[in-house]
Amino acid sequence: MSTEIEELAARFRAFVEARDWEQFHTPKNLVMALAGEVGELVAEFQWLAPGEPLDEAAMGRVRAELGDVIGYLVRLADVLGVDLIADAHAKLDQSEKRYDADTYRGSARKAPPLPP
């Protein structure tokens, strides 16, 4: 994992340990908390008209929700022993094979799955 993500994971780990919250930070609970925070982020964009910018107050809320989302994501990865950066690169490698630029440029259609 990248140093910054490792440092963030360690900081969250210490925060949780100091409060004896490990018992509540099961993968299931962390995924549910992450989904809730993503929902709060979605709510900030829900009724915007196409191209409508966020005002300063909304941007503040969006930044806070993004902080919550990455916090729960990093915590979940830490609890599961997952390397977020390595797995994101692996997923991008798959997507580059699945969605070659010449075939999918400007297209939102879904590609067939890669063969096993």
Automatic annotation (TrEMBL):
List the InterPro entries hit by this protein, alphabetically: dCTP_Pyrophosphatase, DCTPP
Q: Which parts of the sequence are annotated with region: Disordered?
A: 96-116
Question: What molecular functions are annotated in GO for this chain?
Answer: dCTP diphosphatase activity
A biological process (GO) of this protein is:
dCTP catabolic process
Among SUPFAM superfamilies, the record links this protein to: all-alpha NTP pyrophosphatases
Q: Which Gene3D superfamilies match?
A: MazG-like
Kindly state which keywords UniProt assigns to this record, in alphabetical order: Hydrolase
Keyword Hydrolase, does the record have it? yes
* A single cellular component GO annotation: cytosol
Q: Looking at the keywords, is Signal present?
A: no
What highest taxon heads this organism's lineage? Answer: Bacteria
PANTHER family this protein is in?
DCTP PYROPHOSPHATASE 1
This protein is called NTP pyrophosphatase (Non-canonical NTP hydrolase)
